[in-house]
Design brief:
The structure is a homodimer of 278-residue chains. With 278 residues, chain A is mainly alpha-helical. The first copy, chain A, has two domains: 127 residues, Winged helix-like DNA-binding domain superfamily/Winged helix DNA-binding domain (Arc Repressor Mutant, subunit A); 132 residues, Four Helix Bundle (Hemerythrin (Met), subunit A) (Up-down Bundle). Chain A contains eleven helices and three strands. In chain A, helix 4 runs antiparallel to helix 7 and helix 4 packs antiparallel against helix 9. The C terminus of chain A is likely disordered. Chains A and B meet through helix 3, helix 4 and helix 7 of A and helix 3, helix 4 and helix 7 of B. Chain A binds a DNA duplex (30 and 30 nucleotides) through helix 3.
Chain lengths: 278, 278
DNA sequence: AATCACAAGATTGGATACCAATCAATGATT
DNA sequence: AATCATTGATTGGTATCCAATCTTGTGATT
């Protein structure tokens, strides 16, 4: 088994991806040490890993927080993602064999069935996974890791953002990309990938604030020993198991930089994280 | 100032880039703790950072070693590098203004002058730097960091490899890429980038072994307090300041997996790291 | 009442000492 | 000579302690 700091880092990453830990949330050493029942040092090592991954931000003598990417950084992440996926598309259009195309088609089909069945949660997961499968077919582990890191960071953005776009259009993009690529129409496929991401970004409107709906202890509870139902719960925060108090008043540990903090309606958070476009 | 583990990680990274710490070299916690005069914990945090960066490999209960990428991984790294630089090239051909092209040309010119002056060390550094400047012009910090990490990992390969190629051809590639891009001949520029990297990789022949010529303590000595002349010494090991014994007999701390270890001539190491193609 | 300064508390970054588990190398045994 | 067991060294991790810094709350002042 790998080191304990790695597993803790993985758990925190999972919680961030699942939007149970939201940007700006304070990750106190002592608090996490208690939650995971390890020493502070192991926690600090885990936080270093998160920070290296771009998911956390460590401020000297102030502690670690879930990263709060700026709008600028959001654009850069999506630009990088586009660049990587376009490059992989170019490689695949040359090198991919029939089995590869079949796998992609099969994945798209699975997602389509999930949508048809009204299983939005599964559809969202599959939608995310498509990009991962796509890059995996390049058979380049280095590239895979880079891409996976970028994808992880986009999940941060989805917490900061009010999605507002036509969900159905995006759903077909995956299928069309596969079609275009297999037909050798690389240029059009790359343009579609660009448009795909650009549509997502354009639908994004950075909110100024995000309020955590639970404390880290509550957020991390599902992962602790039960080996949590990770994949299925990644759709939203709604069906969370608060394991105790259900009062959503816990605004604890929010990190807000010195900005104009207009008392916006907290309801905006409710509308966030609806669809998870990919 | 940032955390101490970060500065130690930076120093180790610098030493690896400078080929003072070679792949397979053991990075013992206690040893490094003494060298840097810190506790083992700080060292371990630094090693975690190195491992996350792909420059070190931590084996449970065995310790950390400078990473020893396989031939497969080497190809993947260069593939990823090609993909990134081709993508950046595509972006620049659209978006780059006159000032940007001027900066690239100026950089190429500086390198040409260095070559003309016979200053191979400076030429090598500038050759590396060209790629960095190239990516920086994309104005995408996320992409820059990804690229920089890939470049760092290529320096590992140069320790493992006996360079054997036509050095002069590669020198002009940078200039030609700039020319092609500015003229809008994107496709050709991308092909040239591909060929550029492919030529480098083809010239590589993975050696089975690399023998460190000094202990970590010797390797790290130049960086310790004098704030070392980092940039200028990155050409090779030759003008190193061993700060003490000059006997190159110290084969200490080599990590060799269970492989057929033919007693090859140690002289191969001498021929390595001549030109640093980029 | 509002603001500023200061002191107390809390948190982080780090050091030290210590322990258990594991790997490696040595020596003992057959 | 080959194999097995023991010993030593190293790592992963804990607990405790300390200094520096940040936050907060209180109180004095205007």
């Amino acid at each position: 088994m790998s080191s304990r700091s790695q597993t803790i880092a993985d758990t925190l990453t999972r919680a961030i991806i699942d939007h149970r830990l939201v940007p700006g949330c304070k990750l106190g050493e002592r608090e996490l040490a208690e939650i995971f029942d390890v020493s502070r040092i192991v926690v600090r090592q885990a936080l270093i890993r998160l920070a290296d991954d771009g998911l956390a931000q460590i401020e000297r003598n102030r502690g670690a927080f879930v990263a709060r990417p700026s709008m600028q950084e959001a654009m850069e992440i999506y630009d990088a993602l586009t660049l990587v996926e376009q490059g992989v598309a170019a490689q695949l259009s040359d090198r991919l064999g029939p089995a590869g195309w079949a796998e992609l088609r099969q994945h798209v089909e699975r997602q389509r069935q999930a949508v048809a069945a009204g299983n939005d949660a599964l559809a969202d997961v599959l939608g995310q996974e498509f990009h991962t499968v796509f890059v995996r077919l390049s058979r380049n582990k280095v590239m895979q890791e880079i891409h996976a890191q970028l994808v992880r960071r986009t999940t941060l953005l989805r917490s900061l953002i009010t999605a507002d776009f036509d969900y159905c259009n995006l759903l077909d993009d995956h299928s069309r990309v596969v079609d275009l690529l297999e037909k050798g129409r690389l240029k059009q496929a790359m343009d579609l990938i660009d448009t795909h991401h650009r549509t997502v970004v354009r639908g994004y409107i950075m909110d100024r604030e995000v309020f955590p709906e639970m404390t880290p202890a509550e957020a991390l509870a599902p992962y602790l020993d039960g080996k949590a139902d990770a994949a299925t719960t990644s759709a939203g925060l709604r069906q969370a198991k608060p394991s105790g108090n259900g009062d959503g008043a816990a605004h604890a540990h929010v990190h807000l930089p010195n900005e104009d903090r207009a008392p916006t309606s907290r309801a905006s958070t409710k509308k966030t994280n609806r669809g998870l476009p990919t």
